[in-house]
Design brief:
The protein has helices spanning 34-40, 51-63, 66-75, 113-116, 134-145, 175-188, 194-200, 205-216, 244-259, 263-268, 273-293, 295-302, 307-313, 325-341, 346-351, 378-388, 396-407, and strands at 13-22, 25-33, 41-42, 84-89, 94-97, 117-122, 127-132, 162-169, 225-226, 242-243. It has 421 residues and is α/β, with parallel strands linked by helices. It folds into two domains: 13-99 and 114-189, no CATH class; 195-407, no CATH class. A hairpin with a 2-residue loop joins strand 1 and strand 2. Helix 3 crosses helix 5 (134-145).
Length: 421
């Protein structure tokens, strides 16, 4: 990827723009083609006097999400970026306002159009650097290393995309002012929440599938799935099996194992419609198998009155591990590890394991002495369950020592299950 850290002269460029004012900043709103942005704009090293710091920032951008964003630009026909903020200094940029004639009588008039509409002319010797949007810029630069070729009849590639840009003026003697804007924009940007991702993301395979299950499948329609992103059911959600946030986590475990894809691919690269149908079928088939492992789930899925089923399987003494969001995620983790390692069907192994929270190895690990769910020893509980199936887990002596430490007394490991050989 070109570093763009040294000054060079590009060809002149004329950009149609709107000029605006926000606070004490004057800015120009325009669009710039992807190849021009990748060539002309650098990463903002000019904001830092320390060259090592500048190099570290540039290296972290290259090693960060550049490949993911480049792939997104290549593969996603519905790709879209919000505006990059670009600082400009040096050279001889010029703002050329456009003359606007008065509109027809009786129509709304653009009273300030002559001040706001115009052309931003760049001589080519200006220095441009990203104040906000460095990762998107890194992705565009990575794209230019192997630019996609336009195939006749196909949709236009990202090479013809016009990216929305806000250009601000930067003065070298007022570097702190631009750097302060840099930190303000980047610190106050709110990451997309898990709930927003589940509700809106059209690339994330788990989010798309979770929404489809809740909308289309009778087993998962509200109120059977509580619609919030946390893994805890509220007091007024006693008839729900779990939350949509927990369902998302369960689907991620399933899809990572079934597809062999990496987590980033599942989250950022939208599968084809055919692949999405496969994910949906995997998900529903998983819960069908799970309802054989835990008959109480089969009863729940068939029930029209849910409260009584939940009360019997989510009790003060514990009840079924599958009726607790943490337990459902834990057993899915175990199931997918067994699927990857064992020749037998994972559900047959799962059916041999305990299901009640007051039984070992749940009691004292994820089910505390206060009769509450405790995530602190979730990994230990998982490893004990895998040990019981003679699956890959820490050495027995290590497991026993950890479990004894948690229980506060010397204990023996749980017996291994029998029946599948």
């Amino acid at each position: 990827m070109p570093s763009n850290t040294t000054a060079h002269v590009s060809l002149p460029l004329a950009l149609p723009a709107l000029r605006g004012r926000f606070g004490d900043w004057t800015y120009y709103s325009t669009v710039i083609p992807v190849p021009e942005l990748a060539e002309r704009v650098s990463f903002g090293n000019e904001l830092h006097n320390n060259k090592e710091l500048s190099a570290w920032i540039q290296r972290s951008l290259k090693e960060g999400r550049a490949d993911d964003i480049s792939d997104y630009l290549k593969k996603e026909p519905e790709r879209f970026f919000n505006s990059l903020v670009i600082a400009l200094y040096g050279g001889t940029p010029e703002w050329v306002p456009l003359a606007v004639q008065a509109g027809r009588e009786g129509r709304p008039q653009l009273s300030s159009a002559s001040e706001s509409l115009g052309v931003l002319e760049l001589s080519g010797s200006e220095q441009l650097f990203a104040v906000d949007g460095q990762h998107r810029l890194a992705g565009m630069k990575r794209l230019m290393e192997s630019p996609p070729k336009q195939v006749p009849g196909d949709a236009p590639t990202a090479m013809s995309d016009l990216v929305s840009v806000l250009v601000i003026a930067h003065r070298v003697e007022k570097k702190e002012r631009t750097r302060r804007l840099f930190t303000t924009l980047n610190k106050t940007a709110i990451p997309v929440s898990k709930m927003e991702r589940i509700a809106l993301d059209e690339n994330d395979a788990m989010a798309i599938t979770a929404r489809r299950m809740v909308e289309d499948h009778p087993w998962f329609r509200s109120p059977r799935i509580a619609l919030h992103h946390t893994n805890n059911l509220g007091r007024d959600e006693g008839i729900a099996l779990t939350t949509i946030g927990n369902l998302y986590d369960v689907l991620r475990e399933l899809f990572l194992e079934h597809s062999g894809s990496k987590r980033k691919n599942l989250e950022y690269n939208r599968p084809s419609d055919v692949e999405l149908d496969k994910y949906y079928k995997w998900a529903t088939k998983y819960f069908e198998r799970l309802s054989v492992v835990e008959p109480a789930l089969a009863e729940y899925f068939k029930a029209s009155e849910l409260e009584e089923v939940c009360q019997r399987n989510r009790t003060a003494e514990g009840g079924s591990v599958y009726f607790r969001p943490m337990g459902l995620a834990l057993m899915t983790d175990v199931a997918m590890r067994l699927k990857a390692e064992k020749e037998g069907n994972w559900w047959e192994w799962l059916a041999l394991l305990p299901r009640r929270l007051d039984q070992a190895p749940f009691a004292g690990t994820i089910w505390s002495h206060r009769n509450t769910m405790d995530p602190k020893h979730r990994v230990l509980c998982r490893d004990l369950l895998l040990y019981m199936c003679a699956a890959k887990s820490p050495p027995p002596a290590e497991l026993r020592a950890k479990w004894s430490d948690v229980k506060g007394e010397q204990v023996n490991l749980p017996r291994r299950v029998k029946g599948l050989n």
